[in-house]
Write a structure and sequence with these properties.
Layout: E1 2-6, E2 9-11, E3 33-35, H1 37-53, E4 56-63, H2 68-77, E5 81-86, H3 93-107, E6 111-115, H4 126-134, E7 138-143, H5 151-156, E8 161-162, E9 168-175, E10 178-185, E11 188-192, H6 204-210, E12 215-219, H7 220-223, H8 251-260
Helix pairs in contact: 2-6, 3-4
Length: about 260
């Protein structure tokens, strides 16, 4: 089985995020970058699936050469090889999905696993667009399949279940009031949620092996796509500073403030 996993390079949320003077972007100087956490969960799940069913995990990313850092991280985790689509200009979600659809057409994976959204723009659109462009069924927001008895079992059990004959994929997604099980035929696109698994750390041997694993370079022209960007950021603003808490002397004062000031009672 071949599993294709798109990954995105995003700002590390632990860094001090600063807005540009004109308020339309983020200052890149001094920032650290990482694999989008949702995508890292997809890589982990793909590795668990191929460990159980055999196959390979192929990661793909769009961007400048700096994305090699994130591709190498996924390779160090255990992915077999990587594909780099070289494009340095801003691109919208539809164009990203169109580029990925061309990679799907070339690679012919049995399963496309990807994060449900990126933490930098929170668009949550590429997976759905990709399923449409690639004409594949989709199952979104895959979460943990079931509660297991031990942490050891949790670390080994995939949250996405493949049928014995490899014809179907089954996921469990969280919905209002409970869980919903979704099953679809393969090949398919599956987007993953945060509680699906806990990604592994890249081991030292994995980091060393990643240096020799191949990264295939593709261009937008070679894929026959002219990327566009219909999204324009009008204004970015910092969240309002949180007000200091207030210490109240007794329960009666607390109830009074909740009723008359906060208006929550």
């Amino acid at each position: 089985m071949k599993i294709l996993i798109p990954i995105k390079r995003v700002e590390d949320p632990e860094c001090n995020i600063r807005i540009t003077p004109e308020g339309t972007g983020i200052l890149q100087e001094g920032l650290k970058f990482k694999v989008n956490p949702f995508d890292e969960i997809a890589v982990e799940e793909g590795l668990r699936l191929v460990a159980k069913h055999t196959g390979e995990v192929v990661v793909v990313s769009i961007g400048g050469k700096e994305t090699h850092e994130q591709l190498r991280h996924a390779l160090a985790m255990g992915a077999s090889r990587a594909i780099w689509i070289h494009h340095t200009e801003p691109v919208d979600q539809m164009s990203i999905a169109q580029l990925l659809a061309k990679v799907v057409e070339e690679e012919k994976p049995a399963l496309v696993l990807m994060g449900k959204q990126a933490i930098d723009d929170d668009q949550n659109q590429v997976g759905q667009y990709l399923a449409e462009y690639a004409q594949m069924p989709q199952a979104t927001f895959a979460s943990k399949q079931e509660a297991l008895d031990s942490e050891a079992e949790k670390s080994k059990q995939p949250g996405i279940v493949l049928s014995a004959d490899g014809a179907f994929v089954s996921i469990t997604r969280e919905v209002d009031g409970g869980l919903l099980q979704v099953e679809c035929t393969l090949p398919a696109v599956v987007t993953v949620d945060l509680r699906l698994n806990q990604p592994r750390y890249a081991s030292l041997p994995g980091i060393m092996k990643a240096k020799t694993k191949p990264i295939k370079e593709l261009s937008c022209a070679a894929l026959g796509i002219a990327p566009s960007n219909h999204l324009r950021i009008q204004k970015l603003v910092k969240p309002a500073p949180r007000k200091a808490g207030v210490i109240v002397p007794d329960v009666a004062s607390l109830v009074d403030k909740l009723r008359n000031e906060a208006k929550v009672l």
